[in-house]
Amino acid sequence: MIEISSPVSNLFGEKSKFTQKLKNFGINTIYDLLNHFPFRYEDFSHIYKISEIEPNQTITIQGKIIDLKIHRSWQKKIFITEALIKDDTGSIRAVWFNQPYLRYVLKIGKIVNFSGKTAVDDNREIYLSHPVYEVAEKNNETRHTARLVPIYSETKGLTSKMLRYFIQVALKSLKKIKEWIPKEILLKYNFPEINNAFYQVHFPNNLSEAERAKKRFAFEDVFLLQIYNLKQKLSLSFEKAPKIKLDLDWIKNIIKQLPFELTLSQKKSLWEILQDLEKTKPMNRLLQGDVGSGKTIVAAIASLTCSKQGYQVVLMAPTEVLAIQHYETFKKLFNFIKIKDQPSLGLLTSSTSKIFYETDLESKISKKQIYQEILKNEIQIIIGTHALIQKDVKFSKLGLVIVDEQHRFGVNQRAALLNSKKYLTPHFLSMSATPIPRTLMLTIFGDLDISIINELPKNRKPIITKIVPPENRLKAYEFIREQIKQGRQAFVICPRIEKTVEDVESGKVKKLTPREIFKMEIKNVEEEYEKLSKKIFPDFKVAMLHGKMKPKEKNEIMEDFKNNKINILVSTSVIEVGVDVPNATIMMIEGAERFGLAQLYQFRGRVGRGEHQSYCFLFSDSNSTDTLKRLEAIVKAKNGFELAEIDLKLRGPGEFFGDKQTGFPDIRAKGLMDPEIVKASRESAYWLIKKDPFFKKYPEIAEKLEE
Ligand code: ADP
Ligand code: MG
User: Ligand 1 mean position to 603 CA, how many Å?
Assistant: First the structure.
């Protein structure tokens, strides 16, 4: 007996070519295998009598092989296999081309099922053309014939036929899986029990059975998500947060001093946040706003409110570049506006630690010192990267945790920060520009309250976006030249750093052969930098930026770019999130088809942040219509939400959430999009939490949530 978590090698052995095939396909465990759901079924369920058969039917028959011949056609050199099959109503011929090995499978005297299409030959006789065959077993159990036959997505030499075989073997030797969905829920929605569900989704007796099994799988993950969200909400409601009093006049005075007027949705979001901070229930809020919509200033004002009341604030960014940028923004703001008791500001990343207090007083201090200052509440606002989540970093009075682009942080990291409390739970604000369709947002972030900034600051000109075919490349370069001459700056984004393929997950780097590179023509930062700096724009200052450079180097280059000492910055996707250089007006993206839509959207958001008209050029050598469709979505979409909807439609929910295995019929992820499933899962989660908030009766659910 094997477990659902066992590796597939348990089926046929590590060395078996079957095992290898499955692994190549990304199927590593029995769980993976059983979750490779069919995308449709072929109906071979009715067994016809031979006398009933008509031409051009798709049918299954069962009969005895009474004759078997193999010969070569005389003009062409192909093998023809012919079998004569008989049941108690008559006989029929079956014909296959080029499958001489059939003689080893189809033996005279055997009872065999045949499924396939009927045809008519020159003598007007009906025969079976290339039928699928399956030797009838004693118990009459079949997988390829005489039933609803599952059809799987096939690639890389893994056929539906093999998959059926593997899955049937797996199901047969599988130890019974423990049901984890409460039976009341199964009953209410008519979902099959888990072991049956796996059978029924792969080898259903009828289509409605398959449908119900699929529904169950679509329900599973959404249900868990809803339980998780509810649970999160519930446990927060037991915790106490510091009450951060709101001084409206004081806030108004700050807003009045800003160099710009806040947009209506910035004001509204800020108001929602400030009201939450006044409560003793910990805030758990997502500030969602398109790139460039001005989330930082909202976070900054919320931070000031906290520090004024003597509470500390942590602002965490996903990259060092971004952390430094936030630090600089806050610094500038504090220099600009006049408030009494200006808070001191700290910066902590893996490579730098700095402290800024009072106007223009900044000093570098050691890590050890900064830990002490934080502990003594001498630093009120601390900005940094994940370097902040370390046991050495202890706060004395943490009031607010802000996480920028939180999808880059794991749930655990987030919990670690929240737990750095002594007696009170800090308020939590997460900021994100990742476009997610609204409906999904409510399901996925069901535990968070949401504030939305749905407008850009006034006077922003829409970014002009163009897909540039290879023949217009030189024209685009000319255009960039003109812009730079007028004082503007440009980003050039390439998919790769060097001539290697990086496997992001394993961290392994594979060197490509020249041939592979030639074939792939992936633009890389190093070569592009060489080309642009030496050949195309020798008269301009060109620099490059990528993730393998030392933090110090990176920071210096960003600093120079910000100060317009660099005209063109060639970069990888490190530039993706949050970087703010208002004077840059050109975003040029090489190999655009290699990036996801959300990512491209983020890149484009790096420009169009100042008063000047900005441009985004998408370069792609691909002429597949799918690629063009995707890229056109960027050109057309009016905002991030709209783009997300399009992206979701084009790619399906599986890929939208980063599941790389394309072609998988992703039943589970589809549940997120199915209003009926979402409703059922929400109701079930409420019911469960109300009945058994600590899963005493349902330890399996607690286990699943852990996973
Ligand atoms: P994001 O929401 O993508 O994080 P930022 O907070 O970086 O955007 O803001 C983008 C730019 O817009 C910054 O340069 C910021 O100073 C500016 N900005 C923010 N709010 C306004 C506003 N109401 N009017 C004009 N400019 C603004
Ligand atoms: Mg930002």
Answer: 16
Burial (CB count within 10 angstroms: exposed 0-12, middle 13-18, buried 19+), residue 65: buried
Looking at residue 409, its pLDDT comes to 53
Atom of ligand 1 nearest to the CA of 289: 2
* Cβ of residue 640 lying under 6 Å from some atom of ligand 1: no
What digits encode the pLDDT tens for the residues 113-144?
A: 898 889 988 888 899 998 988 887 666 667 77
Q: Give the whole-angstrom CA distance, residue 184 versus residue 177.
A: 18
Task: Count the neighbouring beta carbons within 10 Å of the beta carbon of residue 124.
Answer: 7
Residues of the chain with pLDDT > 70, as a percent, come to 89
**Residue type for position 461:** K
Pocket test for ligand 1, best of 265, 296, 455 (most atoms within 8 A of CB): 296
Mean pLDDT lowest among 100-109, 478-487, 679-688 = 100-109
pLDDT at residue 489 in the model? 96
Mean pLDDT, residues 209-213: 92
Question: Which of 669, 699, 698, 707 has the alpha carbon at shortest distance from 35?
Answer: 669
CA distances from 618 to 467, 497, 518, 679 (A): 5, 18, 21, 40
Rounded to 10°, the helix 640-656/625-636 angle is 150
- The runs of H, that is alpha helices, within 550-639 are 551-562, 597-604, 625-636
Contact between 226 and 682 (Cβ < 8 Å)? yes
Do strands 284-289 and 427-432 pair parallel, antiparallel, or not at all (unpaired)?
parallel
The pTM assigned to this predicted structure is 0.71
Residue 262 Cα: closest atom of ligand 1: 23
